[in-house]
Design brief:
Radius of gyration: 19 Å
Shape: globular
Number of strands: 12
Oligomer: single chain
Structural class: alpha/beta
Order of helices and strands: EEEEHEHHHHHHEHEEEHEHEHEH
Helix content: 40-55%
Strand order of the largest sheet: 7-6-5-10-11-12
Distance between the termini: 31 Å
């Protein structure tokens, strides 16, 4: 039985011995290790939609273009892990077909709303010399706007790029971007480790595509502050609902 986020164990195999010969649940031991990885991380990668910001950017764009309900259902299926991300992205954008003007107007008229606590958390990570990246299946123009609010350089943004014709009409998306497919966020993290020689990289997000990025990420933290994905909550060893929980972990050191 679990109560208040604590899981109780009832058999001998569920315990390991600590250096002080006390019995400690295996799950708790791994959670302690994950917290230490987070506190000593070289880099932290955040998903954006429903994590750094309250909304799903593609859903907001769909509503803005008049096809909100149909696209929201596709998003739920994609985040639940029941269809491949690229297939879901292709289908959703095929319905929306946003023009360049519509994307820019969405950003100016309905800018994405930051999740409470994210500004403070990113600022604290920067103060500690931790590199912060935004790794998103959303769209570059929207994610770069979010990055600017958090003092994250655009070079630290990895997201999907929409393509437009000269007249501004929708022309598809760049399918070569790693974030355009399932497993793409893991590819980004592998690239970051190779390029910057990071020893410890943490991935934080709400969805299945975030969870599958660990490994190569050394730690995954599930986030349910805006929406709870059942699959992620059940499988993530570390699951939080407010960024204050991570700020407190950093204050312990």
């Amino acid at each position: 039985m679990a109560q208040d986020g604590v899981q109780y164990f009832h058999s001998e195999k569920d315990f390991i011995l600590s250096p002080h010969s006390k019995k400690v649940p295996k799950r708790m031991a791994s959670l302690l290790e994950m917290k230490e990885i987070f506190r000593s991380a070289d880099a932290v990668c955040f998903d954006v939609d429903s994590t750094v910001i309250k909304e799903e950017g593609i859903d907001e764009l769909a509503k803005f273009c008049g096809v909100g309900d149909a696209v929201a259902e596709m998003t739920r299926r994609a985040m639940g892990g029941t269809v491949t991300f690229k297939a879901a992205l292709t289908a959703r954008l095929g319905l929306i077909r946003p023009s360049y003007e519509q994307v820019q107007k969405l950003i100016s008229d309905n800018p994405p709303q930051l999740t409470p606590g994210i500004r403070e958390l990113v600022s604290r990570l920067h103060q500690r010399g931790v590199q912060v990246f935004l790794v998103s299946g959303g769209f570059q123009s929207i994610v770069e706007h979010v990055a600017s609010q958090l003092n994250i350089p655009t070079a630290n943004v990895f997201a999907n790029r929409l393509k437009f014709y000269f007249n501004g009409e929708y022309a598809g998306f760049d399918e070569t971007q790693p974030t355009a497919e399932s497993g793409g966020k893991g590819k980004v993290i592998t690239h970051l480790k190779e390029q910057f020689h990071f020893k410890k990289v943490v991935m934080i997000g709400d969805g299945a595509t975030d969870m599958e990025a660990c490994p190569p990420a050394d730690c995954f933290i599930g986030f349910g502050g805006n929406v709870i994905r059942k699959q992620v909550k059940e499988k993530a060893k570390w699951y939080i609902t407010h960024f204050d929980e991570l700020l407190k972990e950093l204050e312990e050191r």
